[in-house]
Design goal:
- Helices cover 59% and strands 7% of the residues.
- Helix 4 runs parallel beside helix 6.
- The chain is elongated, with a radius of gyration of 34 Å.
- The chain contains 20 helices and nine strands.
- The longest helix is centred in the first third of the chain and has 69 residues.
- By secondary structure, the protein is α/β, with parallel strands linked by helices.
- A nine-stranded mixed sheet has the order 3-2-1-4-5-6-7-8-9, with helices on both faces.
- The structure holds ligand NPW and adenosine-5'-triphosphate.
């Protein structure tokens, strides 16, 4: 208004109105033709020109006001249309939720002792992918698929007990839902539920303990070709908080591994004729075994690894199997099949080999969760950690996703960091009371912790080193990543 009083036109109105520009053009022409007149007619012509200018300005102001008004009208109509569209979408989503609620209730009623079999799980996954979880239901952002469906279907008891999934038949049905939703928006919710359990298993640092009590970990691996992998696993175990880390490797690898770090205890025994006896001597002192990083595929080393696994099972310690150890399992599944404290950590390639070895048919790559559960069940409900864009953890009854943000840097050796860390966490999880893990499978809790930690290390190292990130850089981050995730 003030601008108009000063004779200035509102710019947006002028800019948005073609007619006005034309009027303005006329005005300019009129003014210039009038100012081209002779000196004798100066005064009357000037008065005439002033009058013309006044009327043109008035017209311009009127048109500007009209344009402004029509602009606001159009904007109001647009907003109304958007409101209608949003309301319709909201109503459709609500309807979908009601239908799903009914379906889930009927599943729970028809099958009160339902367990999360791969098939049910897959059916639910399919629904979930149709629902595109993660999309807010309303623009207010108050209601999201995972949470609202979850409220509708789970009984208060199962909700209170989650993630305890062995105790109550109804909680099993609720669990299936939890699982299906936990793969979407509530995957983060699932993470939120497991993370406190990982925190629970971390032992207190106290002056009352002696060396070794927080973990003595053994790594079976390291040969002529691969010295980095067992080192990464062993040093990661120490950095996570184990007190002692042993590496049982082939002679050719021992001096090299020792030279990387004085912290490690290195036994050059893996290719010696009495390898099993040499390693067996140490087993009573070990809390957990990690088999496979840098093991290679030499027949003799694999045979030794197999026998060491057998001896360790008899001692009831957790056994993490990674890398070439998984090759061994693919050849001879019985070596670990049915051993509840066994944890397999395949990457996708290793997973495919294992799956096909167990099922004698090609892997259906369209449903990783189902396949991972099937593999776990076929292995006797061993915990399987399928590493990838999301890490998928299952004991055949439930699937948990770890989506801790990592980075796009896939330097070799990250899996070794994971398996070494997992060794320590598995020891802590199995020596914690059931109360601490809320009766969740300790292997699952430990696996979730190790995956989160590895990914967080990857993220932190990547922030510092970008493309140059290596596993050594990630190992440097273990201390602060661990603190951030589990001690804050
Ligand atoms: N510094 C060291 O000492 C290190 C030693 N290490 C040790 O080396 C040993 C052998 O391990 P490994 O990495 O060569 O065997 P593995 O993982 O089967 O890859 C073989 C091929 O499979 C593929 N592939 C892999 N992942 C995939 C995926 N997600 N999705 C799809 N494809 C995938 C890919 O083939 P591509 O398709 O690229 O041709 C890859 O080349 C083992 O003992 C290990 O501990 C490592 O720990 C690294 C650090
Ligand atoms: N596409 C991905 N996006 C994000 N993180 C990933 C991705 N793939 C793997 N990771 C992470 O990297 C870690 C190691 O997985 P990876 O598949 O590299 O194992 P690996 O091949 O056995 O490793 P290694 O090189 O030690 O043999 C896992 O914790 C996983 O979370």
């Amino acid at each position: 208004m003030a601008l108009q009083e000063q004779g200035c036109l509102p710019l947006p109105a002028l800019g948005s109105c073609g007619e006005m520009t034309a009027v303005q053009g006329t005005t300019v022409r009129q003014i210039s033709s009038q100012s081209a007149g002779g000196p004798s007619s100066k005064r009357p012509k000037k008065q005439h020109a002033d009058l013309a200018l006044d009327s043109v300005t008035k017209r311009l102001l009127e048109q500007s006001a009209e344009a402004e008004q029509s602009f606001y009208q159009m904007e109001e109509q647009r907003l109304q249309a958007e409101d209608h569209r949003r309301e319709a979408k909201h109503a459709r989503e609500l309807h979908m939720l009601q239908v799903l609620g009914q379906i889930f209730s009927s599943i729970a009623t028809r099958n009160p002792v339902a367990t999360a079999t791969p098939n049910t799980a897959t059916a639910l996954n399919t629904m979930e992918s149709t629902m595109q979880p993660g999309v807010p239901m309303s623009t207010s952002g108050q209601m999201r698929f995972g949470r609202s469906s979850h409220r509708r279907v789970r009984s208060p008891q199962s909700q209170a007990e989650w993630p305890s999934y062995h105790s109550h038949p109804q909680s099993n049905a609720g669990l299936v839902l939890e699982r299906s939703f936990s793969l979407g928006t509530a995957a983060r919710r699932g993470m939120d539920d497991i993370l406190p359990l990982v925190k629970n298993i971390v032992p207190q640092l106290t002056s009352k303990k002696h060396k070794g009590q927080d973990g003595r970990i053994g790594i079976i691996g390291g040969c002529q070709e691969y010295t980095g992998a067992p080192y990464f696993a062993a040093i990661s175990a120490l950095k996570v908080g184990a007190d002692v880390s042993h590496v049982f490797c082939a002679k050719a690898a021992a001096t090299v591994i020792k030279s990387y770090s004085p912290e490690l205890i290195v036994h050059p025994v893996l290719d010696s004729p009495n390898a099993v006896e040499e390693i067996e001597k140490w087993l009573p002192r070990l809390h957990c075994l990690v088999v496979g990083p840098g093991l290679g595929r030499d027949e003799m080393l694999l045979k030794t690894a197999k026998e060491v696994i057998e001896k360790s099972k008899a001692r009831d310690i957790p056994i993490v199997i990674d890398a070439d150890g998984l090759w061994l399992v693919a050849q001879q599944p019985s070596v670990i099949q049915g051993y509840k404290k066994g944890i397999l950590t395949p990457n996708y390639m290793e997973f495919t080999q294992l799956y096909e070895a167990m099922h004698h048919e090609p892997l259906d790559s369209s449903d990783h969760q189902r396949s991972a559960m099937e593999l776990s069940v076929a292995m006797g409900n061993l915990t399987v950690v399928l590493k990838g864009e999301d890490d998928l953890i299952t004991d055949g009854k439930k699937v948990i996703l770890c989506r801790q943000e990592g980075s796009g840097c896939r330097c070799g050796g990250q899996g070794d960091l994971l398996s070494g860390s997992l060794g320590v966490l598995a020891h802590w999880a199995y020596t914690s009371s059931a109360d601490m893990t809320k009766s969740v499978n300790p292997s699952v809790v430990a696996a979730f912790g190790a995956c989160s930690l590895t990914r967080q290390c990857n993220r932190q190292a990547f922030h510092k080193h970008w493309r140059a990130t290596t596993t050594t850089d990630m190992i440097q981050e273990i201390s602060s990543a661990f603190k951030k995730l589990f001690e804050s």
